[in-house]
Write a structure and sequence with these properties.
The protein is mainly α. It contains six helices and three strands, in the order αβαααββαα.
C-alpha cells in the first residue's frame, strides 16, 4: 500500500529523478522560465520553492544547503544575488504554472513554469489594472443624480468668473507681445 506517499515519481528511479529536478531547477533559476510537461512542472514547483525560501537568508549555511540540491554554483549565485532580493517581501508562491496545450509528438500536456516576479508582461498588466481601478462601475440612482445636480450648479457659477479672469490674464501677455513685434517692425 502507498498511503501518505504523495511524491510523483515521474517514472524514474530516485537518482534519475533528483538529477532531473536539479537540472530543471537550475534552468528555471538561470532563464526565469522553462517549458515542460505539467507533471514535471508541478514536481519542480515543490522542489524549487523551498530553495527560494532558503535564499532569502544569505548565509554560508543556506548557500551550502541550496548547492547540495542544485549542484551548480552559477545557479546558486544567480539565486542569491538576483532572485532573492526581488522576492524578499513575498511570503511564498514564487513560481507560476501556465498550461500551454498539448505536445505535437506524443500529446503530452505541456506547461510553462516561471518565476512570478520576473515576468515583465504580467507585472505591466497588474500595474495597468491597479491604475484603472480608481473609479466605480456602479451607476447612480436618479435621486442621487438629482441631489448632486443642484449642488454642482452653484459651484459651476462660482468657478466661471475665475476662469474668465484667467483667460483675460493669459490674453494680456499675448497682446503685449504682439504690440512689441509691431514696434520692432
Amino acid at each position: 500500500m502507498r498511503h501518505n506517499k504523495a511524491i510523483n515519481h515521474l517514472g524514474r528511479k530516485s537518482g534519475h529523478r533528483k538529477a532531473l529536478l536539479a537540472n530543471m531547477a537550475t534552468s528555471l533559476i538561470m532563464h526565469k522560465r522553462i517549458e515542460t510537461t505539467v507533471a514535471k512542472a508541478k514536481a519542480l514547483k515543490m522542489y524549487v520553492e523551498p530553495l527560494i525560501t532558503k535564499s532569502k537568508e544569505d548565509s554560508t549555511h543556506s548557500r551550502r544547503i541550496v548547492f547540495s540540491y542544485l549542484k551548480n554554483k552559477y545557479a546558486v549565485t544567480e539565486l542569491f544575488r538576483n532572485v532573492a532580493p526581488k522576492i524578499a517581501d513575498r511570503p511564498g508562491g514564487y513560481t507560476r504554472i501556465l498550461k500551454t496545450g498539448f505536445r505535437q509528438g506524443d500529446g503530452a500536456d505541456m506547461a510553462l513554469i516561471e518565476l512570478v516576479d520576473f515576468n515583465e508582461a504580467a507585472l505591466a498588466s497588474t500595474v495597468k489594472k491597479e491604475a484603472k481601478k480608481t473609479g466605480t462601475r456602479r451607476s447612480r440612482s436618479k435621486k442621487a443624480a438629482d441631489a448632486a445636480a443642484p449642488a454642482a450648479a452653484p459651484a459651476a457659477e462660482e468657478a466661471a468668473p475665475v476662469t474668465e479672469t484667467a483667460q483675460a490674464a493669459e490674453a494680456a501677455p499675448a497682446d503685449a507681445s504682439a504690440a512689441e513685434e509691431k514696434k520692432a517692425e
